[in-house]
Amino acid sequence: MGLNRPAKAGLIAAGALAAAAGITAFLVAPGKRDAGQRAPFMGRNFAHRGLHRIDKSVPENSIPAFEHAARIGYGIELDVHITADGELVVFHDDELKRVCGVEGRLEDFTLGQLRALRLCGTDNAIPTLPEVLAAVSGRSPLIVELKRGHANRELCRKVYEVMQTYSGPWCIESFDPRIVLWFRIHAPEVLRGQLSARYPSLRSSLGKFSAFALSRCLTNFITRPHFIAYEIGRKPLTVKLGELMGAMKVAWTSLEWKTEDKNDAVIFQFYRPRVKYK
To answer: Is residue 274 part of a domain?
Structure first.
């Protein structure tokens, strides 16, 4: 005796749901890393762009900001761009205006031209990545964010080469899945993270489709990141699923201590959290 129509419909629906769940799990599953590699980053607070001050007397992504964070024992998050002449500099924005008061995109300037600029009206210049590594001198674990631009592959290759000189633990992250993918292919031993945020935060810069996919970490099947660094706030279910499947939970950017107990690592600014909390 065959199944009646409602029973058949129920089986089809259950099969469709199971298939959808399987596909979703495949899309968001993280890469696998052992506990020892994660250990330097677990339960630690990371100073966002160094330990800079809200009054800008110690500017973001400056040598004094990094030295201060290292002295206290915080981890450090920093941003890396590549210049028009192929040098690596530590700077957050694509545009120079907010921090340096000059019109133009950083990637269109040479290192020599950038050296003439100052950070937030102070005497501090834009540092190179080797200068930052020398200043920190292995004292802090580093989260190195690679900023997408006109020369992603060159940026990835050079960051990887320069970071070999750092004596402390380090990992990489990026909003651009192509950058994270480069490290999956060419440097699989490096702990890698996918930066992401909620859809409204990404839509203006990425477009609707890319913003939807990235906000829900649906590109994980390409990059298989070891951690998800997500904007603080409500997370989509797919992001939570990726975390449940083993991705480290990294939160950015915290302005209060309450964030710490909900994540594996926290990127903070403008307050003094505990150095470690687990």
So the answer is: no
Q: Per-residue confidence at 30, pLDDT binned at 50, 70, 90?
A: very high
Tell me the backbone φ, ψ of residue 52, rounded to 5 degrees: -90, 170
Span 109-129, pLDDT tens digits: 999 999 999 999 999 999 999
* Residue whose token pair is 């890396």: 80
Question: 275 in a domain, yes or no?
Answer: no
Residue 277 lies in a domain: no
Q: Within 13 Å, how many C-alpha atoms sit on residue 107's CB side? A: 14
Q: Looking at residue 200, which CATH number applies to its domain?
A: 3.20.20.190
Of 142, 140, 175, which Cα lies nearest the Cα of 159? 142
161: left (phi over 0), alpha (psi -120 to 50) or beta: alpha
- Rounded to whole angstroms, the Cα distance separating 59 from 99 reads 9
Neighbouring-strand partners of residue 146? 80
Segment 170-198, tens digit of pLDDT: 999 999 999 999 999 999 999 999 999 99
How deeply is 117 buried, as exposed, middle or buried, from its count of CB atoms within 10 A (0-12, 13-18, 19+)?
Answer: middle
| Paired tokens of 224 | 């298989």
DSSP 192-241: EEEEE--HHHHHHHH-HHHHHHHHTTTTHHHH--SEEEEESS---HHHHH
Pick the closest to residue 219 from 252, 188, 180 (CA basis). Answer: 180
Is this prediction's pTM over 0.85? yes
Element (H, E) at 115: helix 111-115
Q: Which long-range contacts (CB under 8 A, 24 or more apart) does 204-207 make?
A: none
| Calculated CA dihedral for residues 210, 212, 217, 222, nearest 10 degrees | -30
